[in-house]
């Protein structure tokens, strides 16, 4: 089921485009002045092994369609997992029924025709993996074996999983937009448990890519999971203090995501962001450049057009520390009197310009302070920027890791943390669409014993 | 004060039998009939899923309808309707599970899924299985469709009243977003152990969030509630408007908030939603899968003391009308009231069928799944601590210096190390037994196995939350409830910025 040949793909693409045509025609027939629709069809295989044995084999297969109809500036939306002609009719009818009750909203409209994607570049996003269940199991077992054999303190496992998925997504609207393309995504992950005395710790590692050949080898994934787990054993608490904090690259990516949600058009027009009215203002030190690359070949978040059908474009979000733009879709752009930036559905392949220092050099730059490797909980207030999260990591003195720490919190305010960014490392070592090295923040409050 | 015993729906006993067959009839009409599936097809499907080396097999049918409305800037700007349907087929052999699902309910698609799912076991002859009849014992909500329980224009009018109520509270209220969601979820479970059961589950939720602005400072407040009931729930006792007032009160309180303290201190948790503490600190760690695998810090500790005397925690799926309640779990097992911790001693885990079978005990009716496209696993329902005998005011008065936290956002736990967090969104300093200024939101962090041993006072004011909780585990979300009385914890780390 996870396998797909190129011929199949062309046929399925054509069939889904027909469904879009049907949805748009049906919307017109039922009196809508405009409509947009999307359909998707995906299939895949997930296997999980634990302690060398198969735990689950899941065959996934999902279909879905969504339609939004406009009656002037009133709109209604419907979706269903059923792609049959009857379901198409019913979905449009349900959307029209909703639109009877929504109210005039001048910004409820499709993107202007001149902004819509007309050519769909091939971003090399589809590499089906014709892997059999037995082979998938063997790869997962090898990955987990590497973790379990890494250190005698690895005493238990949550298992390793391999997953592969293939999907086609097609979208269109009554302003003439029609786009669709197939994508694949494969991943392998492993989580193991270490024990020292009575205390257990767990950690994990993973790899994910558009093409199976781009995945990190299973052995490396397993060993990394084990190494991370073992490094947490013997964790202590800290006394409450103020100190500089180095965010490991994968947790620094979370700070980038906080920036993205704060400059999202919806947060801005709802006045629920700590970065209101900041375009053109410095929000980071001047060495900082943050940008998105939506057309990256094989990129995990690459897309030729956004959720409104608008062409996506590479752009800077922050140049020389200064905020360049909000991230707008058609609706939020209209609400703010601005044009969409092609960010309906978010930012694609977000990056920060990395510095010259590797991990060791960043630790030396930290000097004495906290190296945070894990954050817990939801303690980010998007309206005020107040930041308070559970943390685990390592205490560092004079650039040297001393011991693992846990059951502490770190707190500050994102606006001040952004302004207090001292350096970005070149130690980007985690998979995913966001690329950043570690971040050194000048000072935060650490709460502990 | 909302009390546990308060039923939101009362069904006269004489009508129960009729309604019991009703859920199954509704499931047959809305799921099997449109797909042209006959009883004999179900027997065949279950038979083809089962062979000599299969220990357990089940089929889960689901037909779910959801309608939502969003009001913003005083305009009802968005509405949506969605239908999700499908079937998940599972074959279990030892600790191995084969699983496939289909959103097409016609026989050939299901037969193909059955074939894929049972490939987990060595091949063998189809078993002969006849699905039986298992009565559901509970009647915790009616098999109604909340989407049709109120005319669409009345839903719109309700949200407009909520918006107006929020705005008239205070001129500092700037933005109001209100949303209303109604779901009817019809599920039907067939299993080779003879289970044939259906449940029609209504679920409604109303949420309000406001931004208040004063002298350039902006703060948010959010409130809401929900139940397994029809939308009339929000019209009773002025409920919808009280959510609007509560959201405004929180935003205005936050406008006055000063930096939260940092460090270990005495923390008094308010009654109700702060029970998210229990969900994170002990709840997840007592789920059967983690304990079978030995990955939970609570594994193998039944009979040991994990909390102070007087602390009794239960997971109770049988409370009428509650968001976390179910007539049966997603494996067809009736839900129950399971004692997790009794007077401080660990008594039991929450089990689904698989983990119960592998550890030689019985399912506790906690086998839940997000949808037909997900595998069931042990999940919480409504998790709460029973009341003690202290007056809440007496508890606060007993604290010389500490924090009183009454509202929370979400939480998270690492079940292996036991470390958990939950984030306060409304809190006050306590000084010399009196409540002081409100403080900004802060994350609280602790260690699951010992935080409850530091409970030194338990209030007499047990309260459950308003019905807003959603729990995520391994990528699956399910609605849950939490609750507790006012609690004093002698030492907990508070993640503020002020020393």
UniProtKB/TrEMBL annotation, chain A:
Residues 35-99 form the Metalloprotease TldD/E N-terminal domain. InterPro entries: Metalloprtase-TldD/E_C (IPR045569), Metalloprtase-TldD/E_cen_dom (IPR045570), Metalloprtase-TldD/E_N (IPR002510), PmbA (IPR047657), TldD/PmbA_N (IPR035068), TldD/PmbA_sf (IPR036059). GO terms for biological process: proteolysis. Residues 127-233 form the Metalloprotease TldD/E central domain. GO terms for cellular component: cytosol. Signal peptide: none annotated. NCBIfam families: PRK11040.1. This is Metalloprotease PmbA. The gene is pmbA.
């Amino acid at each position: 089921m996870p396998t797909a040949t190129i011929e199949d793909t062309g046929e399925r693409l054509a069939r889904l485009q027909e469904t879009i045509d049907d949805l748009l025609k049906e919307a017109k027939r039922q009196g809508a002045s405009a409509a947009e629709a999307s359909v998707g069809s995906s299939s895949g295989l997930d296997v999980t092994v634990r302690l060398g044995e198969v735990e689950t084999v899941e065959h996934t297969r999902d279909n879905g369609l969504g339609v939004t109809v406009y009656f002037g500036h009133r709109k209604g939306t419907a979706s269903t997992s059923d792609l049959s002609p009857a379901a198409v009719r019913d979905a449009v009818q349900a959307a029209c029924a909703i639109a009877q009750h929504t109210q005039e909203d001048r910004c409820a409209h499709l993107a202007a025709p001149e902004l819509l994607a007309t050519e769909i570049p091939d971003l090399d996003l589809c590499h089906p993996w014709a892997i059999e269940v037995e082979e998938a199991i063997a790869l997962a077992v090898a990955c987990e074996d590497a973790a379990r054999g890494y250190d005698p303190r690895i005493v238990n496992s949550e298992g390793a999983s391999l997953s592969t998925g293939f999907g086609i997504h097609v979208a269109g609207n009554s302003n003439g937009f029609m786009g669709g393309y197939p994508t694949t995504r494969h991943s392998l992950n492993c989580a193991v448990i270490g024990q020292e005395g009575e205390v257990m710790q767990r950690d994990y590692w993973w790899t994910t890519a558009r093409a199976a050949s781009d995945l990190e080898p299973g052995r490396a994934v397993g060993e990394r999971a084990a190494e991370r787990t073992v490094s947490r054993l013997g964790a202590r608490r800290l006394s409450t203090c103020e100190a500089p904090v180095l965010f490991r690259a994968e947790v620094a990516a979370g700070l980038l995501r906080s920036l993205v949600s704060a400059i999202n058009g919806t947060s801005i027009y709802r006045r629920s962001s700590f970065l209101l009215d900041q375009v053109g203002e410095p929000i980071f030190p001047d060495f900082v450049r943050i940008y998105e690359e939506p057309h990256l070949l094989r990129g995990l978040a690459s897309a030729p057009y956004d959720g409104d059908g608008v062409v996506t474009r590479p752009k800077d979000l922050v140049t020389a520390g200064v905020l360049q733009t909000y991230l707008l879709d058609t609706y939020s752009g209209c609400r703010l009197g601005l044009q969409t930036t092609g960010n309906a559905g978010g930012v694609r392949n977000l990056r920060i310009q990395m510095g010259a220092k590797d991990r060791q050099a960043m630790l030396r730059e930290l000097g004495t302070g906290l190296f945070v490797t894990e954050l817990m909980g939801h303690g980010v207030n998007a309206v005020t920027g107040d930041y308070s999260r559970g943390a685990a990591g390592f205490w560092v003195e004079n650039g040297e890791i001393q011991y693992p720490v846990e059951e502490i919190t770190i707190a500050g305010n994102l606006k001040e943390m952004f302004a207090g960014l001292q350096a970005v490392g070149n130690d980007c070592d985690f998979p995913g669409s966001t690329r950043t090295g570690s971040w050194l923040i000048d000072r935060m409050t650490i709460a502990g014993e | 004060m909302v009390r546990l015993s308060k039923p939101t729906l009362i069904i006269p006993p004489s009508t129960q039998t009729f309604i019991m067959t009703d859920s199954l009839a509704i499931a047959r009409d809305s799921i099997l009939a449109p797909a042209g599936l006959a009883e004999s097809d179900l027997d065949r499907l279950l038979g083809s899923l089962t062979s000599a080396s299969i220990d357990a097999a089940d089929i889960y049918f689901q037909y779910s309808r959801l309608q939502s409305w969003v009001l913003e800037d005083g305009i009802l700007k968005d509405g949506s309707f969605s239908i999700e349907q499908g079937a998940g087929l599972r074959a279990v052999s030892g600790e191995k599970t084969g699983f496939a699902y289909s959103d097409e309910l016609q026989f050939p698609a299901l037969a193909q899924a059955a074939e894929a799912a049972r490939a987990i076991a060595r091949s063998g002859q189809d078993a002969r299985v006849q699905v039986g009849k298992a009565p559901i014992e509970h009647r915790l909500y009616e098999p109604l469709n909340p989407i049709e329980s109120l005319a669409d224009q009345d839903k719109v009018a309700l949200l407009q009243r909520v918006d107006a109520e929020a705005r008239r509270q205070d001129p500092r209220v700037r933005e109001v977003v209100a949303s209303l969601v109604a779901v009817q979820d019809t599920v039907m479970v067939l299993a080779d152990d003879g289970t044939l059961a259906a449940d029609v589950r209504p679920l409604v939720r109303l949420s309000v969030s406001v931004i208040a602005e004063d002298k350039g400072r902006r703060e948010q407040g959010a409130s809401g509630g929900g139940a397994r009931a029809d939308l009339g729930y929000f019209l009773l006792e002025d409920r919808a408007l009280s959510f609007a007032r509560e959201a405004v009160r929180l935003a205005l309180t936050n406008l006055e908030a000063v930096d939260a303290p940092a460090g270990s201190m005495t923390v008094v948790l308010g009654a109700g939603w702060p029970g998210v503490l229990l969900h994170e600190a002990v709840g997840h760690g007592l789920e059967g899968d983690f304990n079978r695998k030995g990955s939970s810090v609570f594994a193998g500790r039944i009979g040991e003391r994990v909390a102070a005397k007087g602390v009794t925690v239960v997971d109770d799926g049988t409370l009428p009308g509650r968001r976390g309640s179910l007539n049966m779990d997603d494996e067809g097992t009736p839900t129950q009231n399971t004692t997790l911790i009794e007077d401080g001693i660990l008594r039991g885990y929450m089990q689904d069928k698989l983990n119960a079978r592998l550890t030689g005990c019985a399912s506790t009716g906690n086998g839940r799944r997000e949808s037909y496209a997900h595998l069931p696993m042990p999940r919480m329902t409504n998790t709460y601590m029973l009341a003690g005998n202290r007056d809440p005011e007496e508890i606060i008065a007993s604290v010389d210096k500490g924090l009183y936290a009454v509202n929370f956002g979400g939480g998270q736990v690492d079940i292996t190390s036991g470390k958990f967090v939950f984030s306060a969104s409304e809190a006050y300093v306590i000084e010399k037994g009196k409540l002081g200024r409100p403080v900004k939101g802060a994350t609280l962090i602790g260690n699951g196995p010992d935080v409850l041993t530091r409970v030194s006072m338990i209030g007499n004011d047990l309260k459950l939350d308003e019905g807003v909780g959603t729990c995520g585990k391994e990528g699956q979300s399910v609605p849950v409830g939490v609750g507790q009385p006012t609690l004093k914890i002698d030492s907990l780390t508070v993640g503020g910025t002020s020393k």
